[in-house]
Amino acid sequence: MSPRSLFWIPVILRLLLVAMTMGLGWYWWGSTAGFVIGFIAVLGLALIQLQYLYQLSLWLENPDQIKLVDGFGAWTDIFARLYKLRREDQKNRNDLAEWLSRFRQAMSLLPDGVVIMDDVLFLEWCNPLAEKHLRLNLDRDKGMRVTNLIRSPEFIDYIILGKYEKPLSMTLGERKLIIHLIPFEQSRQILVTHDVTDTDRLDQTRRDFIANASHELRTPLTVINGFLEIAAMQPDLDLETRKQHLDLMVDQGKRMQNLVEDMLSLTRLEAIDHPVRPEPVKVAMLLQQIQRDSIALSGGRHEISLSMDGPDLLGSSDELHSAFANLVTNAVRYTPNGGKIDIIWEKHAEGPRFIVRDDGIGIRPEHITRLTERFYRVDKGRSRETQGTGLGLAIVKHVLIRHEAQLTIESEVGKGSSFIVQFPVTAVLAVNH
To answer: Which of 187, 194, 366, 404 sits between 20 and 30 A of 168, alpha carbons compared?
Structure first.
């Protein structure tokens, strides 16, 4: 049966019922009584329809809170259809909400920032990474023009000129960003931000490393090549001068060898992408060997003491030997003749500590934070005298990072320095177990 029939048949039946009621009243009580009965019946039907219309009006204003009555006649079908449409609408809204939630979750996991704007650049939505990159706040900034939120001349020029085929490279705060605007649909635009700060810093570090390494290698090679040219041009050079030249070439060759070895060690440490393979480290034996080596390096020019009251560790013996030896070697190189160097391994509430303390020349405060940078020199002239490569403390830093240890440097110019390595308590617990 068609919907039109379902509507009109109950209406016609009700009208027939009213007519029959009027006829019966007319027949039994006269015309006046028939009209009154018919009027009351029609009025009753009208009141019922108005009540249903009122219920429908209330429901339309707040369909989530008010429930429709079942009704009768044509209203039953109307209410049933409304309920069906309401269920379908609720299902569509739930599906849309779930899709939107998944979309936002997916956008939040992207490695890039995403901003959605309308055709006049008003902010509609952005993911957390875009908030971080562009210093936005979705709750606060939604509905505002993006060019009013990002007050960068180069960004505004990029937006106004409309040359979006080429991304914009810009610096915002401490971040370097690559920004690309992508128009889509007829009234939407997507702004994508990619943070290249770390990549740019890494590229700069590599360039600096190559430049510094080239500079450091150039000096010994120049010395060696110079003396070889002299030897080639003056084959009858006296033995004493020739011996001096050979000694200098040997020294420069050793310096170049040490530099290459340190660069290889540092490169190897930086390339390791897996944690330390733990092994028991006999710290007492390791430090005794380092003390003997440092005494040999000092050649009797310093007083070098060793104090041990700490436990063994769990870590890489070779890496820890390299870090500890670099710290002690630096103390020997930068402490004047007659100075004292203390090597200390002690227990502490926060975990065991390794300390190298000297009474040498000390370090000015502005240099301390940069000492672990590659090739950083406090005094370039003195570094050449001490034959340092400028990579020792960089190696120390990477070894300690791999062992979850921290380096603290305390120093006072003219009174000496202390290099303190703090290991976590867990390193000792691992050994004890």
So the answer is: 187
Q: What is the CA radius of gyration of the chain?
A: 43
What's the start-to-end Cα distance of the chain, in Å? 84
The residues, any chain, with a CB within 8 Å of residue 418's CB and separated by 6 or more, are 355, 356, 357, 358, 409, 410, 411
d(CA 322, CA 13): 103
Alpha-helical regions (H) of 334-432 = 365-368, 380-386, 392-402, 425-432
Tell me if 36 is assigned to some domain: yes
d(CA 80, CA 68) in angstroms, rounded, equals: 10
348 near 324, Cβ under 8 Å? no
In a domain, 399, yes or no: yes
Question: In CATH, what number is assigned to the domain containing residue 226?
Answer: 1.10.287.130
| pLDDT single digits (tens) 106-140 | 777 788 999 999 888 899 888 888 999 999 999 99
Number of domains observed in the structure of the chain: 4
Residues 10 and 153 in one domain: no
